[in-house]
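Archive transcription. Copying these from loose printouts into the bound notebook so they stop getting lost. Printout 1 of 2:
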Amino acid sequence: MSKRYNKSLAKVDRHKLYEIKEALELAKETATANFDETIEVSVKLGIDTTKNDQQVRGAVVLPKGTGKEVKVIVFAQGEKVKEAESAGAEVVGGEELAERIQEGWLDFDVVVATPDMMSVVGKLGPILGPKGLMPNPKVGTVTFEVEQAVKDIKAGKVEYRADKGSNIHLPLGKDNFDVEDLYENFRTALETIVKVRPATAKGRYLLNIAVSSTMGPGIKIDPQAIINMIG
């Protein structure tokens, strides 16, 4: 471990369950790298991801944004091309855009596609799939409402998905965000995760919650504070 990390770790009580804003303040304080670190929340869920009816996946628009400039490309045709361009998409196209990606171009963060273009996008599965870039109707990236989709992504829409260990990781913003802005994003993220609790999940749902900066240690949050926040 680096001296910087150990110095940050010394500020955190590993046995304490922090209040939300206190934890977010500490996450900012322990972000000491020479770049703008991302403040992230990690949630351990009481679900069994081997069961199809206990998958937790979706997207949420963070009200204060992510602090990151997101590059969006759109597969569309006809009038939907102008909609995507007016909403701020970096590149809009069809077959020629697919060919460009097949040739190795990957300078984008999110892919949106209209349903009638999925036959074109489907061929890119081996390239986009492993990078988590494949459009999916479950998270709103396969839609005819391309203008709204692009605007939401630009405004701070992020995808979430429980991994095999039943963990969800979500960005809350950058370390230069105010604590209040991070808190608003945190509240929205947790409210969303609680709303999509699978009906078949038994027992406690929110097992562990922690926040951290990109290079900093995890800071555990009291689950009771989440209950109090959501109400």
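Printout 2 of 2:
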Amino acid sequence: MPDAALPHAQQATDAPRLQALDVNWTRDGLITGVGGALWITTEALLKSRLAPSTCRWCDRSPDGTDTLNAVDRWGRGMAARTESGRHAWNTWSNVSDFVVLPVGVLGAQYLLASGSGAPVRYFAEDATIIIESAVVAAVANQAVKFAVGRERPFVHVLEEGQKAHTEKPSDNNLSFYSGHTSLAFSLVTAAGTVSELRGYDKSWLIWAVGLPAAASIGVMRMGADKHYLSDVVVGAAAGSLFGVAVPLLLHGRQTQAQGAGTGMSMRMSGNLGGMSLSGTF
């Protein structure tokens, strides 16, 4: 008898299937909640106590000679020349990093998921993983900044007597590494990694659009004279590390039971001499 169902069955077998990921709501809720509370508390309430009052990494020798490396000296050329310009870059970097980029990344993730035919719960899980990755990256950055105590570029050029009179003295020595850049790259790389794990159509768009957008945050921070080039490069690397590692280590693909949600297909063929049954599972 003709095997009329074969083309359809073959198409079903060859069609890409979306992957279920390991999401433990209790574990992930605790990591995100505790990490978020820790970051907010240290940033909003405890920064004046935890941040070093004087620089530990000052880019100056004991006799006061400027020892800033050539790469960071060159990168400082991106800083705005006027105080109003630096303030504008600082404002734009805050709005972009804490509003525009997160909304854009989550919105793009929703469009990729729905465009690939994923159920709504997949997007809820994706958003949880992305936010969790960003929170872990932010907590790690906070710990490093408080421990390292690198003097910010705009503080570095002030006279010693002026440094205590900046707008936020507790923020003077938190240059390394760039938290804004780390956050931006953690959001983008987490979204890209989750999209690849899921098998979403056109997941390359997250990388193609998101990575330049994340890099622009670092440029803005340099324009605001808040960070050196090395702060931004390390921030990008650290954010990317957490953005890739958290999804891969905590949220790998679930193994599916044989015949359960695996796109099982069968076909039957035979003649007067016998019959055979074959399939893919």
